[in-house]
User: What shape does this take?
Amino acid sequence: MTLTLSARWTPSQQEFDDFARVSGDDNPIHVDPEFSARTAFGRTVSHGMLIYSRLWGLLTAACPEAKQVHQAMMFPNPAFAGEEVELSIRGTVPGQVIMRAARVVDGAELLIGEAELA
Assistant: This one.
């Protein structure tokens, strides 16, 4: 099956907090606005795997039988609460898909990845 999927998502601080609670990754860069204000980012940033989980959810909604065999991804820029993100996936199942997440406001890539699917 050939896929071309896209969606928009606006992450929230509540999602960062909830993901930290579920994943155990409570690094203050994700959950502590006062700490994060003193960093180069100036505010909290999303967990990279939260972004990936949104992409994976988009894929499995369209193709529930997809099983991941391998993945590779990079997170070149941060995602911030309240800033809209464009999610996109293209490729084939089974086969390889290319995943991308980018900030809508400036086009900065947040996640660039690929996955091999069975």
